[in-house]
Amino acid sequence: MKRTLAEAPLEESFECLVCDKVMLRSEQTSTCSYCGKSEVADYQCPDGHYVCEECRLSTAEQLVKTTCNHTKEADPLKIANLLMKHPAISMHGTEHHYLTSCAILASMRNLGLFDIDPIQIDKAAALARMPPLGSCALWGACGAAIGVGIAFSRALKANIMSGEERSIALNLVSESLREISKLGGPRCCKASVILSLQVARKFLAERYGAQFDEGNPICEFKNVEPCLRKSCPFYHE
Amino acid sequence: MICRILRHASPDASMNEAIEEAILLARHEGQPLDTVHIWQNGKAAILASNADVRTSVDEAACKSSEVAIVRRAASIGRTTYQDDGTLNLTYVIDQKRFFPDTDSLTEAYGRLSKPAVEVMSSLGVSVEVPEYAASLVVEGRTIADAWVRFYYDLMFLQLSINVQTDLNAQGRALKQGTGFTTLSREVNRTVEIEDVQRALIQSIAKHFGVAFQEENLSPLEKKLAGRLHQIKYSRDDWNFEGKAPLSLKDVLVEVYVAYPPTKSCRQIIENVGSATRDLKDRVETRIWMRGKGLDGHGSPPGMPMSIALTEAAKQAIVPAVVVNGELAFSRDVPSAEHVERKILQALER
Question: Which of A45, A161, A182, B67 might form a disulfide with A16, Cβ 3.0–4.6 angstroms?
């Protein structure tokens, strides 16, 4: 029987959180793939990925805010995917609600479309925390879809007296909910995030000429029960 | 393929449950052969692991009829009754070794049930095998109950076959004691347990191409069974309330660290190691890595985190140290002395 970690020394290699390649011991200075901090790495991926100690210990919300404040990535799907690979983000949970809104805001900032500062990210996260676990079933409104509305509402500074801004937020939530509803069940937070962000991307492309990678995203979290498998458009064997 | 055939049983139903679990644990710890355990119990109401004793059995009736009430650790299966008219067939197998061509648990269950189905068919009893590890039924009447449990890569499947089980006694012992049948009833004559046993062994050998090696319990299994009986199966808090001990040892220390472990995580692991060095006989340590499971190798079936550690993980309390199901240290790095003090306190309780 294999010895447990409690009985044997810690392994000297671990899988990279970002790309699954084997990371080896390192003593070089590296830059954190999440928050951008530079420090002497203990383990580093051959492709240069590194997760700093603070990010390894982060809560989900700390991680989402820090990453979205730092990232230079313009594609919200890539931002979300990086976040979802971190152990702080569980397979299913309310963190997907604010992850969606913060990823969109970061994307809009990096596309140069809106002036998004950390306060905006904080406020979006606070709002997107509100839909409870299971709001998709309990409210008929997935929190990830609502996250899309929150992001655009913050960016466009919509309020109850607004005209077009408010309509945009409502329409995007509606479209996201429609896409998620077509998927059927049981719920998958990963698929809901991807579908919601696809709606956001489409709007950013059509309205602002933003350009993103073509092609259907492939889910990197497959087969964790209850996976929709071939019923999911992002499933790939 | 060689399999062990084991026929051992105790007159004590709670010891039999301990033996069954011991076989499973010992197989994981390196016992080389898969096991087919064919055995009989005394009068016993066997509770499913999550059953409520109050709604499952008539305790007064069990007491007056000297029917033992014991709880099984299997997570899939329901409460049932056994006596000397019941024949138990338990498989403890390495699923990948036994079924290298499939990952499907339902398929594995179906195949493992086939010998029993074939034997019953040979007696003229047509049995339905439901899809999900449920009982074997004859026109809606349960003729054999099934329990399934997983532990790492191992599968534990028990079929409890009503050969000549006393259904009246069953009806008295269980709150839901109807809807059952026996082989003898279905064929309208007394079916002998030894005949069914012999036929089952032949059928298993044929279906799976196994050669049987008749062996008794190993020293490891006897030791494990004794310990399991002492801390779990002989105790009311398990049998009546479903409260399982956290570990076979006296204290369980769970350490929750980042993946990869940070400097502080490594220091905690080292300090816990120092604290438990002289207490290894009494203290079990498990290291869980955030998002990556036990020892960073996933979450093995049958090896859950304690409730306290699950809560700590949900709240992102990392690193964390849980001692006997209580959060002892959160986010700081306790010295080896501090950890040792907590463990000694737990040992004193």
Answer: A45
Residue B154, beta-bridge partner list: B94, B151
Contact residues on chain B for A17, CB-CB shorter than 8 A: 259, 291
* Domain identity same for B163 and B257: no
**Average pLDDT of chain B to the nearest whole number:** 94
Q: Domain map of chain A by residue range?
A: 10-57, 58-231
What sign does the CA torsion over B318, B324, B329, B330 have? positive
How would you classify the pairing of strands B211-214 and B2-6? parallel
Q: What's the confidence (pLDDT) of residue B97?
A: 87
User: Both tokens of residue B247?
Assistant: 């570990």
The distance of B321 to chain A (nearest Cα, Å) reads 13
How is residue A107 written in tokens? 């994307």
Residue B232 sits in the same domain as residue B265: no
- Out of A6, A17, A60, whose CB is closest to B285? A6
pLDDT at A2 over 60: no
Cβ neighbours of B26 in A, within 8 Å: none
In a domain, B232, yes or no: yes
Instruction: Decide if B296 contacts A11 (C-beta within 8 A).
Output: yes
Q: Do B119 and B159 belong together in one domain?
A: yes
Last residue of a domain, one of B211, B239, B267: B239
The answer, yes or no, to whether residue B44 has pLDDT greater than 80, is yes
Q: Give pLDDT tens digits for B48-96.
A: 988 999 999 999 999 999 999 999 998 778 899 999 999 999 999 998 8
The DSSP string of A182-210 is: HH-SS--HHHHHHHHHHHHHHHHHHHH--
Q: What is the CATH number of the domain that holds B74?
A: 3.30.930.10
* Residue whose C-alpha is closest to residue B155's, from B99, B204, B233, B205: B99
Distance CA B145, CA B179 (A): 12
Q: Phi/psi at B214 (nearest 5 deg)?
A: -80, 120
Span A132-156, mean pLDDT?
A: 97
Global ipTM: 0.90
Residue A224 is given by DSSP the state S
Q: Across the interface, do A86 and B291 touch by the CB < 8 Å criterion?
A: yes
Rg (C-alpha) for chain B, rounded Å, is 22
Contact A57 B295 (CB under 8 A): no
* E strand or H helix at B264: helix B263-276
User: β-pairing, B44-47 with B68-71?
Assistant: parallel
In a shared domain, residues B102 and B221: yes
Q: How many CB pairs under 8 A join A and B?
A: 63
Question: Distance between CA A130 and CA B105 in Å, rounded?
Answer: 39
Give the phi and the psi of residue A201 in degrees, each rounded to 5: -60, -45
| Residue in this structure with the two tokens 């995917």, named with its chain if needed | A81
Question: Tens digits of per-residue pLDDT, A6-21?
Answer: 666 666 679 999 999 9
> What DSSP string runs through B180-211?
B--HHHHHTSPPPHHHHHHHHHHHHHHHHT-E
